[in-house]
Specification:
It contains 8 helices and 9 strands. 33% of the residues lie in helices and 19% in strands. The model has no long low-confidence stretch (mean pLDDT 88).
Length: 241
């Protein structure tokens, strides 16, 4: 699966995606990531164009991607065109990949666009599993500031998703949460398919060695049932019965 991230801050993903299980999944070519910064698809401001026309071009012209919202209100809104152009580039990359796959007489699944929104449908394990099984490419659009011009999601229809009943400063953290949850549903990412907790009997509480943990003069023992060898009873304990 390839995750295509539309974000103003691609560097914010580096530390999380390049560690532990997700790093290993990339090494094993089970998942990969591509980033598209709307700033790379924005045009210079009118002021910068005028300076260039007068022979005073900026060394690095300021590429504006935000504007005040119509109707007033605080904050700034991401403009539609830079985001639209970034999504179009992602779609071109997907088409390019399809052509490569088709030459090998193989099949590629469809793509899905996900618009991250505090008002979207709540993200669940069931949704993560559906995406992992149904799509080979996922485009995740990360908003910032007061959000993104609503015409983007009308032009590029997809799923509006929220990871919870709270608001964050941007879509990067929600995108990482979704990537983690979707990736672990892909066969081979966790190594052992039994590691997917929601597909087996698992307890919120778990214990490991030592059997007796001594802290400040008090001994803390593991539940006796876990040493019983009675797997049916252990499963019932894990299920809370």
């Amino acid at each position: 699966m390839t995750f295509h991230l539309i974000t103003l801050f691609p560097e914010s993903f580096t530390s999380y995606l390049n560690e532990s299980i997700l790093a290993r999944a990339q090494e094993n070519k089970l998942i990969k990531f591509k980033f598209y910064n709307p700033r790379d698809f924005a045009k210079p401001t009118e002021a910068a164009r005028m300076r260039a026309k007068n022979g005073k071009a900026d060394e690095k012209p300021y590429l504006r991607v935000d504007e005040k919202p119509y109707g007033g209100g605080p904050g700034m809104l991401l403009q539609a065109l830079p985001v639209i152009n970034a999504i179009e580039r992602a779609l071109k990359e997907i088409k390019k990949e399809k052509r490569k796959i088709n030459k090998r007489n193989s099949k590629i699944k469809n793509y899905r666009i996900i618009h991250l929104s505090p008002g979207g449908e709540k993200f669940t394990n069931a949704y993560a599993e559906k995406v992992s099984k149904k799509y080979d490419h996922v485009i995740i659009v990360c908003g910032r500031y007061e959000g993104i011009d609503a015409r983007v999601k009308k032009i590029f229809k997809g799923d509006e998703i929220s990871i919870g009943d709270y608001v964050l400063t941007g879509g990067e953290l929600p995108a990482m949460v979704m990537i983690d949850s979707i990736s672990r549903q892909i066969e081979g990412v966790l190594g052992n398919s039994k590691s997917v907790e929601e597909k087996r009997i698992a307890s919120h509480d778990a214990y490991t060695r030592p059997e007796i943990l001594e802290y400040k003069g008090k001994k803390h023992r593991i539940p006796k049932i876990l040493k019983s060898g009675n797997h049916k009873a252990i499963d019932e304990w894990r299920a809370g019965k």
